[in-house]
Design goal:
12 strands; single chain
């Protein structure tokens, strides 16, 4: 009788530029309870907008199966997005099933935070590791404008952040900065989260989708953001935590433990060459770039055996050569999928 052979680990999947697949972002729903102008402007995403019916969403079983099929390719980081993922019914059930996948090192969720106070406890109990909360201002006036008049103050979001922290969830805050819109909120936001020892990321305003009326002159480059924060605090650069980390991070000296400022510079300093992310839409379209024009429908592949599904995903990633943020600088313009459809 021959001795049992140890299972041979699959080699990581590499695309045409040698980039591994490490990070998958899964949109659970294309709807949102806010109308942020840079993502889902209310003038376009109104009451008659044709959002996906719930019957078109991937089931939790299909989502889990696709994620498990990505694991042999090298997937280790998973983030649940939307739209607003906290609108997806029975979300803790999905989180519990995904938390049971042993190969995943990180299970996170991106949210606008409006429903976080109510849902933080069941999500933490289900096994969620971290939340990233989007907040673009501290003043009621800014919050009303930047939420499409659907949120009257930052208080519900701040309560959600506090609740998540109290339960042991990791919390990070993201702010998209637009010149002439919320540029004046940089210092108030930084002060609030530095004093509380929370990481804050400032993100350059990006030309995601085709509906947000993006203008380059509204982009506040990272060098200007860094200079403004540095007028008030001393920043010490940190080493990247992993290949493909998109934020350039800084420890805030003489501040509460955990205080950290990061900058995401997709416009002024494109980082395509290290991008290791794929994105799955709520109805099963796989996008290999945030700025892609179209995705690949995975639903016809679901009847396949597990091994074949993984092989097809590997072949798809192996053919990838996206580098839109670099091509933007070369003058290339394309129609792009909306961010509310596949998440950030």
């Amino acid at each position: 009788m021959k001795p049992a052979q140890a299972a041979v680990a699959s080699p990581p999947a590499l695309d045409q530029l040698g980039r591994p697949l490490r990070d998958l972002r899964v949109s659970l729903i294309d709807r949102c309870n806010l109308r942020c102008p840079y993502c889902m402007p209310r003038e376009i995403f109104g009451a008659d907008y044709p959002f996906l019916p719930s019957s078109a969403w991937l089931s939790f079983l299909d989502i889990e199966r696709i994620i498990r099929a990505f694991v042999p390719l090298g997937l280790r980081k998973l983030r649940l997005t939307g739209g607003e993922p906290l609108l997806r019914p029975k979300l803790p059930e999905l989180v519990a099933s995904l938390a049971a996948i042993p190969e995943l090192d990180d299970l996170a969720l991106t949210t606008n935070g409006v429903r976080l106070e109510a849902l933080a406890a069941p999500l933490a109990e289900a096994g969620l590791h971290r939340v990233t909360v989007s907040l673009d201002g501290m003043s009621p006036t800014s919050v009303r404008h930047l939420s499409g008049e659907r949120l009257r103050s930052p208080e519900p979001v701040l309560r959600g952040i506090d609740r998540a922290r109290s339960l042991g969830l990791g919390v990070k805050v993201n702010t998209v900065v637009r010149r002439g819109v919320n540029h004046h909120e940089i210092v108030p936001l930084a002060r609030h989260f530095i004093e509380r020892g929370l990481p804050l990321r400032f993100i350059e305003y990006m030309d995601v989708g085709n509906s947000n009326d993006w203008k380059r002159e509204q982009v506040v480059p990272t060098k200007d953001l860094h200079a403004q924060v540095s007028e008030h605090w001393t920043l010490e650069p940190l080493e990247a935590a992993y290949r493909g980390e998109v934020a350039r991070r800084y420890r805030v000296l003489d501040a509460a433990p955990g205080a950290e400022i990061g900058f995401v510079s997709s416009i002024s300093e494109p980082f395509c060459r290290d991008c290791n992310r794929a994105r799955l839409s709520a109805e099963g379209q796989l996008f290999t770039c945030l700025f892609a024009s179209r995705g690949t429908d995975l639903r016809p592949w679901l009847p396949c055996a597990d091994a074949e599904l993984s092989q097809r995903l590997r072949a798809l990633w192996s053919g990838r050569k996206d580098r839109y943020s670099e091509e933007r600088a070369e003058g290339k313009a394309v129609q792009k999928v909306e961010m509310g459809y596949i998440g950030g």
